[in-house]
Specification:
alpha+beta
């Protein structure tokens, strides 16, 4: 994981314009994004006190996605997690799980957050498995929350607390 850079914009724009990549994103855009949109977003991100986003790279240095914490509420010590593996050939290979765990580690240990939450499409079973593996628990269901195709779909709210993540990490290290 590393900071996002201007050289990443072409890949980010390609991913958010790919309907297969954005199908399950809770904050997917409904219109095509351009390179100038990407540069503007990166500039806004660099000035933000409430958003942190990072590039996900393979060990070989290939950019494959992004992960971040958004809507950070410093007084409440909470934030919303987002993750996107944009390169389709990297889906279901463990990169998302690694990125989520690393972002949780940074959020809880490096940023002193106490709660990290997310929204996920209730029918996105692969993502839900990843989040549960990383310690997230279901909090509730937002019924008919998102418009998808020709109808509305449910969104699952999940969260993990700092102490739950720490307990899971220590258990993972001892087994």
């Amino acid at each position: 994981m590393r900071d996002l850079e201007p050289g990443d914009i072409d890949s980010l724009v390609r991913w958010v314009n790919d309907p297969a990549v954005t199908l399950y994103l809770s904050q997917a855009v409904a219109y095509p994004v351009s390179g100038s949109d990407g540069y503007r977003w990166l500039e806004e991100l660099s000035r933000s006190h409430t958003d942190r986003a990072f590039a996900i790279e393979t060990l070989e240095g290939r950019l494959i996605g992004s992960v971040g914490l958004h809507a950070i509420r410093w007084i409440d010590r909470k934030a919303e997690l987002s993750v996107m593996i944009g390169e389709r050939d990297c889906w279901n290979r463990g990169y998302g799980t690694w990125a989520v765990r690393e972002m949780l580690r940074r959020g809880f240990e490096g940023m002193s957050l106490r709660r990290i939450y997310l929204r996920v499409a209730a029918d996105h079973e692969a993502a839900i498995r990843v989040y549960r593996k990383c310690g997230f628990q279901s909090e509730g269901l937002l019924r008919k929350d998102r418009y998808v195709g020709r109808g509305y779909a449910d969104t699952l709210m999940m969260s993990v607390l700092k102490e739950e993540f720490a307990a899971g990490e220590s258990g993972a290290r001892t087994t």
